[in-house]
Amino acid sequence: MNNKISKLFDDKTSGSFEILYELHNHLKEQISFLKIFPNFVENVADKFPSFENIQKYLSELKLSIKKNNIDKFFKKYDKYFQNINDTLFLHSQNELKKFDTFLTISNSKTLFELFIRLKITNPKLKVIICESRPKFEGRIFAQKLSKNKINVEIITESMIYFKTKEIDAGIIGADSILKNGNVVNKVGSALIALSCKNFNKPFFVVADKSKFKKTNRFIQKEMPPDEIWRHNNTKIKNFYFEEIPKNLITKIISD
Q: In 3-state terms, what secondary structure has residue 142?
C-alpha cells in the first residue's frame, strides 16, 4: 500500500477528485491495516492540505474507524463515486448545452466526465485548454479528451486574453469553495475569470458539495522554484493554487 499511496502524495498533475478516487480504491483494500493503525489516516490528510474533499473524506474515515463501521463507510463512497458524475451532468446540462466552445485550465476529472457527456449531446463541442504550468497537466487533460474524440486546442496561459474572444464560456473545476463564495483552483483560473468578465462571457465552476468549506481560510503554499526555472541568481515564485473572487463567477454548478 505504501508505494501506491506514495505515488498519490507525489501526484502534482491530477485534480483533487481523481486523487480522492484513487485514494479511496487503495484504502478500501486495507481495512485491516487501518483498524490497527488509525493514525495513518491523519498522516495522509497532512499531505493534501489544499483539497477540501480529501480532508472531509479522511475525517469521516477516521470517525468510521473509531465507531467500527468502516465497511459501511466504504460502501457509501463506492455509491458516491458511481453516481456523482451523472448527477453533476444532470444539474449542468441545461446551463451548458447551449455553448460549443469552452476555455479551461489544469486536469480535472470532474470536467473530463462532464465533457464526455456533453459531447454526446453536442458533437460541435470544443475545449481550449491552458497548458497549465509548471507541471503542464493541461497537456495531460488534452490527451485524455482527444482519445475520446473531443476537439481540443492547447494554449499557453499568456494567450488567455486573446482566446477568450473566441469562446462561448470559461469553465473550471475547484479544489475548494470557501464559505464566502470564492473558489480556490489552479493558478491561472482567476485570469480566465477576469478575461471572461471583460468580454462578457459566462464563467462557470463545476464541483460537488464535498468541495464546500465552512471557513474562508485559504493558505497559498509556495512550491519548489526549480519547477519553473533552475537559476540560482533569480528570485522565482511558484504557486499552484489561487483564490477566484465570487463576483467573477457566473454560477457554481453542484449536486
A: helix
Cell of 157: 496561459
Say how far apart CA 143 and CA 47 lie, in whole Å.
27
CA distance 103 to 196: 10
Distance CA 43, CA 125 (A): 42
H/E element, 204:
strand 203-206
pLDDT per position as a tens digit, 149-179 = 999 999 999 999 999 999 999 999 999 999 9
Return d(Cα 154, Cα 22) in angstroms, integer.
Answer: 27
- Provide the pairing of β-strand 169-172 with 151-155: unpaired
- Tens of pLDDT along 41-50? 988 999 898 8
b/e map 130-163, b = 16+ CB within 10 Å: bbbbbbebbbbbbebbeeeebebebbebeebeeb
- Number of helices (H) and strands (E), helices first, in the chain? 10, 9
- CA 218 – CA 243 distance, rounded (Å): 8
50: left (phi over 0), alpha (psi -120 to 50) or beta: alpha
